[in-house]
């Protein structure tokens, strides 16, 4: 092996070693990885895993929906709300969707105010977002109670048609509702810390953006649930 080849191999090894050492240093420094902060990177990884889970749930639902030999219940009739002596199709679902989509707007404004150092307005908007989330979960609880107590829908049976309807509905909406509930708790916790001035000491409000990523994801998932479960 001549000196030129040896020098080339040594340089390549040094670059590879430096690259791996840099990668390890990023991930072990508890500050950033791949030029993204540690907290944001971990949130993206968590959301990616959640995307796989929700995709499996929705794919399973669609597979059951198209393969069942028993008639699938009509969502417009099942989720109708009795108002003024008439059944209004999907009224409650429309309100729930409006509330959750609106919460994305207040969350985005909270992130904006946080990066401008206005912790009071940021915390206020996070509390408004959490309130929207509570309203959504409350309406979902009403929807569940109506189906269980009035319509007799169960995870293992359904008097209105295909038995798989109850299992798919409670699994998908329940899992999403759990995410919304967790997000509400997280919003309240971070808003409280904002008001207390905990992030002023470090001068870093990125945690508000990280919470915002989670909340926007929850809202986006609901759009797919709304389209595939209630409109199909």
TrEMBL record:
It is a multi-pass membrane protein. SUPFAM superfamilies: Cytochrome c oxidase subunit III-like (SSF81452). Residues 43-232 form the Heme-copper oxidase subunit III family profile domain. It is found in: Cell membrane. The chain crosses the membrane at residues 41-64, 122-142, 162-192, 213-231. This is Cytochrome bo(3) ubiquinol oxidase subunit 3. InterPro entries: Cyt_c/ubiquinol_Oxase_su3, Cyt_c_oxidase-like_su3, Cyt_c_oxidase_su3-like_sf, Cyt_c_oxidase_su3_a-hlx. Signal peptide: none annotated. It comes from Variovorax boronicumulans. Keywords: Cell membrane, Membrane, Transmembrane, Transmembrane helix. GO terms for cellular component: plasma membrane. Pfam families: COX3. Heterooctamer of two A chains, two B chains, two C chains and two D chains. One of its GO terms (molecular function) is cytochrome-c oxidase activity. Belongs to the cytochrome c oxidase subunit 3 family.
């Amino acid at each position: 092996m001549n000196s030129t080849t040896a020098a080339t191999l040594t340089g390549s090894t040094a670059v590879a070693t430096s690259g791996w050492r840099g990668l390890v240093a990023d991930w072990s420094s508890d500050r950033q990885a791949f030029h993204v902060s540690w907290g944001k990177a971990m949130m993206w990884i968590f959301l990616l895993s959640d995307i796989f889970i929700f995709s499996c749930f929705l794919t399973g639902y669609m597979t059951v929906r198209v393969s069942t030999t028993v008639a699938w219940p009509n969502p417009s009739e099942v989720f109708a709300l009795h108002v003024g002596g008439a059944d209004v199709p999907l009224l409650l679902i429309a309100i729930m969707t409006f509330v959750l989509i609106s919460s994305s707007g207040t969350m985005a404004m909270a992130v904006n105010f946080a990066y401008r150092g206005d912790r009071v307005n940021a915390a206020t908007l996070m509390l408004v977002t959490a309130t929207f989330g509570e309203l959504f979960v409350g309406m979902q609880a009403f929807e569940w109670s109506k189906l269980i107590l009035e319509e007799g829908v169960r995870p293992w049976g359904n008097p209105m048609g295909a038995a798989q309807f109850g299992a798919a509905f409670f699994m998908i909406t329940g899992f999403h509702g759990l995410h919304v509930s967790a997000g509400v708790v997280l919003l309240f916790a971070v808003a409280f810390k904002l008001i207390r001035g905990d992030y002023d000491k470090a001068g870093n409000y990125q945690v508000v953006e990280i919470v915002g990523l989670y909340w926007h994801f929850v809202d986006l998932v609901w759009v797919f649930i709304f389209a595939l479960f209630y409109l199909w």
